[in-house]
Amino acid sequence: MMKLLDLCSKVDQILKKHSGIGIEELTLQLSMEEYNFPCSLLSNGSGESIRYLHLCGCSFRPTAELPWLKSLTKMRLHAVCFTGDELESLLCNSFALERLVLTHCDEMVCLKIPCMLQRLRYLKVFCCENLRVIDNKAPNISSFLYAGERIQLSLGNTLKMEYIHLAFGGALHYACVELLSSMPNLKIANINSRTEMANTPVLRSKFLHLKKLIIRPRTTIFSYDYFSLVSLLGACPSLETLILDHVSIFTDPSDLRKGQQHHKMKRVKILGFTSAKSLVELTCHFLESVTSLEYLTLESYQSCPRCSVRASKCRKCYPLPIDVLREAQRGLLAIRTYIEPKVPSMVKLRVVEPCRRCQLLLNFRCATHHYSMFYCLVFVSVIVSSSYQKCPFCSTGT
């Protein structure tokens, strides 16, 4: 306890010594929530010059009586303890704020962004465990990033929204049904859905300016109909780049569905390619219906660090589960069988396989598995055929 008090006292002395000398950037990174950032040290005009504030691992209790960050343009709070009301009292006096980043701030339940933040363009809220509501009144936000649990999102005026990143369960369906239709000027959408149970619905709205779409549906490969994404793609007439990350045709390879044509898409990249029939259908749809397609990249499951990254200095693949490696092989077979024959001459197909080390590992595991099965059969046959139970590893009877 004494060591903690001594450290807090030293931090206070450092802040007090440097306050009032025109500080423009203030970064304080600690790992003790017991430390309460001394807001009073930066009152009376001492903090008016601060343009960037980064606090990590402490408590932060601003009040409405401390309007001391009038020049603040960027603020980042990581693992900081504060309530939604305390943060709102600070934001109401930070008229110059342009970027706000909040990560792992678990005490906050409701985040309210006041309408007077006319310059706020970038809002990022990641992994705030107890957060339940984001209520934004700032009218000019162009980039919004959120990751965590599904919560109540009220983003206000989104006419200037150009980039959105969402990461939570059911994010893709939620974005299509409730959010994207209010963002007519959206240019880039990055959707990461941990559990996507519902297929993509038929959309009536058009996203006329969307040029890049990244979708990461973290779901089981047989539970989601990837071909339902065609309705979303049909609502994006200006789409140029599609990246589908981690998505078995061999049960029913016939009667692959077809969709409408696209005339702007140039690049398609699918990571974690599997043999899911709906995914093969979607890929064939790109080849048959996207008349402007130039590049198609299909990448099987990769270890971490990625097998395909040549610049990796590790030179070591962390082992993938054998069922994942086997599915990667099935995915490659699906590419060779159903996709490669349909690739037009003007489309450059790039297939990224697991590296040689991963393939050797799969072969070794399979060989070990078959050897173990064979040895078990021999062991059982020895026990059964013996006139008395005798240990096969020695001559001692049992």
What order do the helices and strands come in, and which of them pair?
Layout lengths: L1 H17 L6 E5 L22 E5 L17 E5 L5 H8 L7 E5 L6 E4 L8 E5 L6 E4 L6 E5 L4 E3 L8 E5 L3 H9 L8 E6 L18 E6 L11 H6 L6 E5 L21 E5 L5 H13 L5 E5 L22 H18 L8 E5 L3 H30 L13
Parallel strand pairs: 1-2, 2-3, 3-4, 4-6, 5-7, 6-8, 7-9, 8-10, 10-11, 11-12, 12-13, 13-14, 14-15, 15-16
Protein name: At1g61320/AtMIF1 LRR domain-containing protein
Organism: Digitaria exilis
Pfam family, one: LRR_At1g61320_AtMIF1
N→C terminal distance: 64 Å
Q: Strand content of the residues, in percent?
A: 15-25%
Question: How would you describe the oligomerization state of the chains in this entry?
Answer: single chain
Main β-sheet, in a few words? 13 strands, parallel
- Return the structural class: alpha/beta
Gyration radius (Cα, Å) is 28 Å
What is the β-strand count? 16
The CATH class of the largest domain is identified as Alpha Beta
**Apparent shape:** elongated
Mean of the pLDDT scores?
A: 79
What percentage of residues falls in helices of 4 or more residues? 25-40%
Whole-number tally of structural domains: 2
Low-confidence stretches: 248-256, 373-398
- Read across the widest sheet, the strand sequence of neighbours is 1-2-3-4-6-8-10-11-12-13-14-15-16
Q: Within the CATH hierarchy, at the fold level, what is the topology of the largest domain?
A: Leucine-rich repeat, LRR (right-handed beta-alpha superhelix)
Please work out how many helical segments DSSP would assign: 7
SSE string, helices as H and strands as E: HEEEHEEEEEEEHEEHEEHEHEH
| CATH architecture call of the largest domain | Alpha-Beta Horseshoe
InterPro entries: At1g61320/At1g61330-like, LRR_At1g61320_AtMIF1, LRR_dom_sf
Protein name: At1g61320/AtMIF1 LRR domain-containing protein
Domain At1g61320/AtMIF1 LRR: 9-355
